[in-house]
């Protein structure tokens, strides 16, 4: 009668409970069993792939024990692959050393561990500053840097994928927070965005607006310092002479630059930098005395802080340019 | 008194699985299953009620049976072979009727569980790497399937607001892989040809089919209300899915990949529904912290789910069946259960 407590039941023996205590239920169950049993028979006979196994989920042996690690690559949750990074570093290193002859100042100000938001000025039609900063820090401090950039990158085939494997992350506030707060990583952003890389040579070393100060808010929320980096030389590596708006719109690009490199070298100019000397100066980290983790921060405070950092960075750039004697030799 | 549970879509993969999972629980007194066809799995004590896909008879059934829990698994989350109108009837109208039945005055229902999909987040270049449950969808709705699921969730949200005395759970599942389930991705992997968009290798997430049922059972058992993402830990590149699954990537041009896939779809070589197009370009990741925080533990990671599929597939190729370790002999089991010759009450 008590169907469910049968010791021969293939399902794990149900503890004595509802079934046997209520004869009505048991009758009902048995009636149903007869019927669904017949249906089940029909289903079991049919060699269809969507016929399911009887063994209940809870008792099914887990498959994972003997299977080993299924992963085949080292691509992390952001799309970065240390393997690809290593290849990129090997290819880029000669350019870093002998073409741009990158020189750092104050690298020790970048935290050796824990999260920090690196910000820098941005320049050049295809900006050479991001790879230089990422390469330098990875070589010297031996820790990864995630470069936050415009969503536009993701839409470009091959480029988007390579950019992601090399440590690029779409600049979404959630991404930045997770990197900085949850994972204590270094993230690099250019607060000016494409407004900086699209500016012509006439506007060189004039910092654009720092967006709406979002980077300050993210650093506040994540409770990490902002470390400004002043970059000199990127402006001259691939300067824009003028832009063609119509071509940009037709190709769905943020901007279409005609660079000095392209005027000199033709199409080759779009993949060739001038050998300007890159000098980078790490400025003092800026810490915010606010409670981390809040949903919103005072708008005026955020804007003030962003403007303050922008002024410091602009001043540092002017200082470095005062000391610079040659674009090519520093 | 034990639980009285009504499951929708008993004839579908998830409804059948969920019924099997609940049948072994002693605290569940009554299991009712609604379906348009006979259930395809052997069930012991689940009562099957035939219904149309709009569930127009549902309110009568709820009133007559006094169920306290409804598990709504009958939501179409894969648009292959489902015409637009049917999709709308099943997802939107079906849910509408279900919620109407659950929320009618004097209803006995205390908890509604809805099996939704992470397709509601869409897939675009503006996405964060990890969607949290409250992250708004950054891109406009592009496919029919997504539109119907977004509409369903809006209905459920309104219902939750209007009926504060009910617990409502929405589980958003990532793409499923596993030993038995057939999805567009598993279909493609089994044919050793996984379509991709040339130049893109996005990060994707999977959840193993056992974890899907376990998650449904978990929230039903504990009556945990709220919206939860359900996906295996970690993400893996699309190319790695092909590598683990033993398939070759079939690159489609980045411009109109769906149109180029269409002739291959017609020939039955691959399945590449519209909702997979965005996924193959930008991928998707959902944060599963909330469900984890409520105590649920996954058995499989994202890569583990792909591997679970691959292992089952190897076995299937070798033996013709994914599960030779246990074969259910219906007659034998019926004998053990009902024959007077079997001495009951002995410990094994």
Description:
The complex is a heterodimer of chains A (330) and B (348). Chain A has helices spanning 18-21, 23-45, 64-67, 82-99, 129-141, 152-155, 159-165, 173-182, 194-197, 214-222, 234-237, 245-251, 260-265, 299-323, and strands at 103-105, 116-120, 145-149, 168-170, 186-189, 226-232, 240-243, 257-259, 279-282. Chain A has 14 helices and nine strands. Chain A has two domains: 3-43 and 52-58, no CATH class; 82-323, Glycerol-3-phosphate (1)-acyltransferase, CATH 3.40.1130. Helix content of chain B is 40%, strand content 18%. Chain B has helices spanning 13-23, 58-65, 84-103, 144-162, 184-190, 209-222, 238-245, 257-266, 274-282, 289-293, 302-319, 330-338; strands spanning 3-8, 28-35, 47-50, 69-72, 111-117, 167-173, 175-177, 193-197, 203-204, 206-208, 226-230, 236-237, 248-252.
Output the keywords.
heterodimer; A: about 325 residues; alpha/beta; Glycerol-3-phosphate (1)-acyltransferase; seven-stranded mixed sheet; two-stranded antiparallel sheet; 9 strands; globular; B: about 350 residues; Rossmann fold; seven-stranded parallel sheet; two-stranded parallel ribbon; 12 helices
């Amino acid at each position: 009668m008590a169907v469910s407590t049968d010791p021969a039941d293939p399902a794990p023996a149900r503890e004595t409970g509802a079934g046997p205590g209520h004869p009505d239920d048991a009758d009902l169950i048995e009636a149903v069993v007869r019927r669904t049993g017949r249906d089940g028979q029909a289903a079991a006979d049919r060699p269809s792939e969507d016929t399911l196994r009887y063994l209940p989920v809870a008792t099914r042996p887990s498959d994972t024990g003997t299977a080993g690690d299924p992963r085949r690559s080292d691509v992390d949750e952001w799309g970065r692959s240390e393997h690809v990074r290593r290849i990129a570093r090997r290819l880029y290193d000669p350019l870093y050393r002998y073409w741009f002859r990158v020189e750092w100042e104050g690298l020790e100000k970048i935290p050796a561990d824990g999260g920090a938001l690196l910000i820098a000025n941005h320049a050049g039609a295809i900006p050479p500053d991001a790879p230089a900063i990422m390469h330098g820090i990875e070589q010297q401090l031996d820790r990864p840097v995630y470069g936050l950039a415009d969503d536009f990158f993701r839409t470009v085939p091959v480029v988007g994928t390579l950019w992601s494997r090399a440590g690029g992350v779409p600049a979404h506030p959630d991404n930045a927070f997770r990197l900085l707060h949850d994972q204590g990583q270094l993230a690099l952003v250019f607060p000016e965005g494409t407004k900086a890389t699209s500016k012509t040579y006439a506007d060189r070393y004039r910092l654009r607006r720092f967006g709406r100060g979002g980077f300050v808010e993210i650093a506040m929320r994540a409770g990490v310092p902002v470390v400004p980096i002043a970059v000199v030389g990127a402006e001259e590596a691939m300067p824009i002479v003028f832009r063609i708006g119509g071509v940009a719109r037709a190709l769905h690009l943020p901007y279409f630059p005609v660079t000095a490199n392209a005027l000199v070298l033709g199409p080759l100019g779009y993949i060739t930098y001038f050998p300007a000397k890159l000098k980078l100066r790490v400025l003092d980290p800026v810490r915010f005395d606010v409670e981390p983790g809040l949903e919103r921060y005072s708008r005026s405070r955020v804007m003030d802080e962003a403007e303050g950092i922008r002024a410091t960075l602009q001043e540092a750039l002017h200082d470095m340019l005062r000391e610079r004697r040659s674009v090519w030799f520093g | 008194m034990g639980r009285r549970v009504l499951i929708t879509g008993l004839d579908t993969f998830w409804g059948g699985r969920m019924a099997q999972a609940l049948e072994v629980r002693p605290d569940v007194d009554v299991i009712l299953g609604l379906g348009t066809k006979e259930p395809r799995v052997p069930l012991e004590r689940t009562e099957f009620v035939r219904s149309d896909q709009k569930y127009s008879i549902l309110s009568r059934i709820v009133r007559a049976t006094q169920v306290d829990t409804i598990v709504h698994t009958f939501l179409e989350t894969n648009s292959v072979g489902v015409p637009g109108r049917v999709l709308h009837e099943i997802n939107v109208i079906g849910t509408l009727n279900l919620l109407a039945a659950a929320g009618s005055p004097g209803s006995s229902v205390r908890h509604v569980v809805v099996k939704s999909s992470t397709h509601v987040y869409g897939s675009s270049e503006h996405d964060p790497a990890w969607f949290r449950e409250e992250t708004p969808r950054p891109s406009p709705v592009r496919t029919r399937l997504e539109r119907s699921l977004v509409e369903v969730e809006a209905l459920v949200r309104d219902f939750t607001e209007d009926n504060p005395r009910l617990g409502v759970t929405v589980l958003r599942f990532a793409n499923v892989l596993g030993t038995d389930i057939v999805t567009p991705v598993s279909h493609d992997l089994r044919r050793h040809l996984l379509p991709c968009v040339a130049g893109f290798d996005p990060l994707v997430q999977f959840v193993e089919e056992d974890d899907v049922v376990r998650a449904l059972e978990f929230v039903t058992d504990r009556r945990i209300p709220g919206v939860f993402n359900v996906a295996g830990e970690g993400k893996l590149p699309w190319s790695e899915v092909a590598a683990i699954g033993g398939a070759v990537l079939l690159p489609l041009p980045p411009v109109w990949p769906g149109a180029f896939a269409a002739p291959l779809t017609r020939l039955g070589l691959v399945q590449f529904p519209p909702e997979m197009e965005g996924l193959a370009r930008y991928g998707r990741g959902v944060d599963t912290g909330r469900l984890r925080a409520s105590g649920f533990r996954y058995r499989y990671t994202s890569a583990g789910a792909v591997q679970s599929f691959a292992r089952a597939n190897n076995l299937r190729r070798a033996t013709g069946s994914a599960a030779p370790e246990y074969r259910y002999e219906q007659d034998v089991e019926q004998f053990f259960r009902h024959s007077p010759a079997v001495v009951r009450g002995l410990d094994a």
